[in-house]
Each structure stands twice: as C-alpha cells, then as structure tokens.
Amino acid sequence: MTTAPVDDDTKTEINGSEEAHSPAAVDEKSEIRAPKLRVVEYALLLKPRVMSLVVFTAWTGMMMAPGSIDPVTGFIAIACIAIAAGASGAINMWYDRDIDVIMKRTQNRPLPAGHLEPLEALGFGVFLSVASVAMMGIFVNVASAGWLMTTILYYVFVYTIWLKRRTPQNIVIGGAAGAFPPMIGWIAVTGAVEPNAWILFMIIFLWTPPHTWALALFRSGDYDAAGVPMMPVVVGHRKTAIQMVAYTLALIPVSVLPTIVGISGRVYMTAAIVLGIGLLRHAFIVLKHDDDKKSRSMFFFSIFYLFLIFVFLLVDKGLMLWFPDIFS
Asked: Is the pTM of the predicted complex or chain greater than 0.85?
C-alpha cells in the first residue's frame, strides 16, 4: 500500500561506477553492513517516506469521521495502517527486485544492493501483513481490518504483480491502494464505510496520476530501461502532460466536496481552491515545457499539495468545533 506519493529515491542514488555495481563490492558491503545496520535495512524495506504520508492521511480520516475513538484504540489503528503500508512496500520490493537493480533511483534499496536476501524481505512483508490485519480486527473493528486486508492485497496483486508491468494505466487503477488509508481511518471510528469517507478516497485517487506521472517524466529513462510501461514511456511527454492537466482539473472540484457536504468549512475550501490552482499551474507548465526541472518541480509541489489539503481539513475541523458560530 502506497499513497499516495511514489517513493522517489533520488537522495539515495549510487554513483554508477562499475566498482559500486560489481558482485564483489556488493558482497563486501553486505558483510560490512550486516552486523550493525541490519535493522536499518529492514526499516528501509518499509518505505518510511511513503509511510509517513499514509499515516498522516489515515489519521486525518480518523479525525474527520463522526463520533469518537479512544486514544489507545486510535493509536493501534494508525499503527496497524502504518505496518500494513510498510508490509506492502516490503513485498513490492521483493517482487520488483529485478527491475530495481536496473533503475538508478532504486539501485541502493536493500535487495538490489545485496544487503538482504529476497526471502527475508518476502517473509518480513507477509508476517507484517498478517499481523497488522489481525491486530486491527482484534483491537479496533472487523470492518477496518477487512479494508486493510483489501488494501494490501490490492497493492500487491492488482498493482504490483498484475498492472505495473503491463499497462500505462497501472498507476490510475493501482493508485486506489494509496487512496484507501483515510477511509480505513474513518472506518476505525465508525465501523462502516460512509459516503463522506469516499470523498477523501477520491481526492487521493485523482491526485495520484499527475503526481506519479510527474515523477515518471523526469525518470522516464529509468522506467524505459526497466521495461515498465509508465505513461511517458508509452505515449511521450505531451500526451502524458495533457492527462495530468485533465486529472488536475477533475481533482479541483472534488477537493471542495468536503465543504459542500458539510464536513469542512470555508477556510478549507479557500485553501483547496488556492492549492488546486497552484497544482494546475504546475501541470500547464509541464504541458508547455518538456523539461525535467519543471516535472520535478510539479512532483514535489504535488506532495506539498496533498499534505496541505489534509492539514487544512484538520484545521477547519478544529475551527468548526471551537468556533461554530464563525466557521460553521
């Protein structure tokens, strides 16, 4: 399970020298790193940067849901969602290890770098998947456990194994897995799926394609070399950018639905419109300029956009509770 943001490993790229990629160098690194940094390698399997946004959106869903949840149960629910997201990431790394060794941005992950064995990653991911779903069912509620299990299975089997290497629509369909966390947070409180929870889902679902394709534009060489049919690899820059504009245009009205249905107020709506215009501006710039710097800029702005959308949901929720006469 991944949110919404695709894990961009630009900060962990290796220098590409033959020595760094040689089997002897990998074996030597493994022997040096294993005793002291094994825990770190397992932690990296969980894609912690991706997990952080998953946790935040899930917590926002929990806070936006009607009703209440006691702090201990809420903490367990968020922990289970985080563990499940990490477990999905670990299984994804196990399955994608053959292409991760080709792509520059992923070559330093634990498996292609030779720091962990494939079966270690798979076993770790499966164990955490089962444990997170079981804990959610025992300590929170069965409905949230069922949706958590669905999310893991969807990310692993539908996105990673079925879609990712077969169609340029991989992230459009598979991106649903990253949109489930706020729904699961909501269900942890209410015990059921409600229409307003689907609004949070749709915000992330429509945000995912322009966010991911922005990354794919400035990493298209990586995806092409690995044989992954990301949209820019298949249809090129312009057609990809046109679709990014289209999804952003669809996202803006959906992003104001929380105000329309009454779960958020004017402060959030103003922020959503301003942020949406900012994201749309980036999309049009990418459409106009076939420039990796413009695509990279949109990629990072899109992370900023989603984070602030959910921040303002929480801020407005607080304002409506504390000052109902002014902000309701």
From this structure: yes
Output the six-digit token pair for 326.
């002014």
Residue 232 lies in a domain: yes
Residue that terminates a domain, selected from 136, 158, 192: 192
**Structural domain range at position 308:** 194-323
Could you tell me how far CA 178 lies from the centroid of its own chain? 5
Judged on CB neighbours under 10 Å (0-12, 13-18, 19+), 57 is buried
Spatial distance between the Cα atoms of 209 and 43, rounded to a whole number of angstroms? 27
Q: Is the domain of 128 the same as that of 207?
A: no
Distance CA 76, CA 60 (A): 15
Per the document, the length of the chain is 328
Separation CA 202–CA 167 (nearest Å): 22
70: left (phi over 0), alpha (psi -120 to 50) or beta: beta
Same domain, 174 and 235: no
DSSP state of 47: -
167-198 pLDDT, tens digit each: 999 999 998 999 999 999 999 999 999 999 99
Q: Are residues 159 and 223 in the same domain?
A: no
**Boundary residue ending a domain (177, 192, 207):** 192
Give the CA angle between residues 245, 3, 68 to the nearest 5°.
115
Environment class of 48 (CB within 10 Å of its CB; exposed 0-12, middle 13-18, buried 19+): middle
